[in-house]
Amino acid sequence: MLDQTETKSYGDFIPRNLRPLIDRAIPHARAQISGSPVVAIGLASSGQTFFGVNVELPGVPLNYSIHAEQFLVANLALHSELQLKGLAISTNGYYFQAPCDHCCQFLKEVRDMSDTIVVITDPTGQSGTFKPFSTLLSQESISRENVLRFLELSYNSIGFIDSSLYMDICINSGCNHLNCRALRAATMSYAPYSTCPSGVALIDRRGKVYSGVYMESVAHNSSLGPVQAALVDFVVNGDGQEFKEIVEAVLVERKCGGLSQEGIARMILEKIADPDCIFRVLHCKNN
C-alpha cells in the first residue's frame, strides 16, 4: 500500500516532488486491458497526499472501469478527508495532464472543487503551470446547486424491509460483519439525484472486510458504483491481492423504482471474484 502520511504544502506540490509518489503508485494500477496505467495524486485539506489509480476489471467492459480520479475521491472518503486542494495526474511522473471530461464532471461533485489547483505540464515535462479546476470545465458541464457533495458527511435514513435482519446488526460501528458494513455504507452513500442510496461490503479469504458507498454524479454516466468503491478499499488495503480472493459480497440498497445496483454488481463480481463467491442483496426503505 502506498504511504499516505506524507505532508505537502502548495509550494511542494510540484512535478519534481510528485514524481516519486507517481512511481510508487503506478504498480497499484490495474490496466491489463488498455495497458495504460494512470495515477492521480491529491493534496487533501489535512495536508496529506493520497493516490488514485485506474482499475480495469478483467472480463468487464471498460466503461465500468474505475478512473484514477474516481479512485482518488473514493480514497479520500475512506480516510474522512473533507476537501481536495491539489490534483496531479500522470502516466509516468514527468508529464502531468488535465483530468478527462468524464472525470471533470465527476470531480464537480466535490465541494469547492472550482478552487482546486491542478498541475499541468507541457508534453516534454520541462515546463508546467498550476490551473484552477474551474478553468478546465467545458461550457456544457452540468451542475446542480444546493445538494450534498462528495466528502461531506451524509446520512441516509434507511432501514431493512425485512426487520428480522436487525437481529444480526451490531451496535459497534467497528465490526467486520458484512451486513453491518454494507448497511453502514448505504447510509453514508451519496445519491442526491436518484435518492437511491446503496453500499457494498466484500470479504476476502483472510476474513478482511472492505466496503464502498455509491457516489452519484448529476451526469449519471460518471457515477461510481458501490462495488467499484469497495474495490478501491480492496486495492488500498488488500496488500496487493487479486480480486479472485473475494469470496463473499453484500449489497444493501434502497428499493427504488428507477435504479438498482444489483445487476451491475452481480455481473462485475461474477467476472472478477472467486467463482464460488456468495453474493447477497438486502433491500431497504426510508425510515
From TrEMBL:
Organism: Arabidopsis arenosa
GO cellular component: cytosol
Active site: 69
Cofactor(s) needed for function: Zn(2+)
Quaternary organization: Homodimer.
Domain of life (superkingdom): Eukaryota
Details of cofactor binding: Binds 1 zinc ion.
A molecular function (GO) term: zinc ion binding
UniProt-annotated binding residues for Zn(2+): 67, 100, 103
Boundaries of every CMP/dCMP-type deaminase domain copy: 13-145, 173-287
Signal peptide location: none
Family to which this protein belongs: Belongs to the cytidine and deoxycytidylate deaminase family.
Keywords: Hydrolase, Metal-binding, Zinc
Record-given protein name: CMP/dCMP-type deaminase domain-containing protein
A GO BP annotation: pyrimidine nucleoside catabolic process
Residues reported in the UniProt entry to bind substrate: 54-56
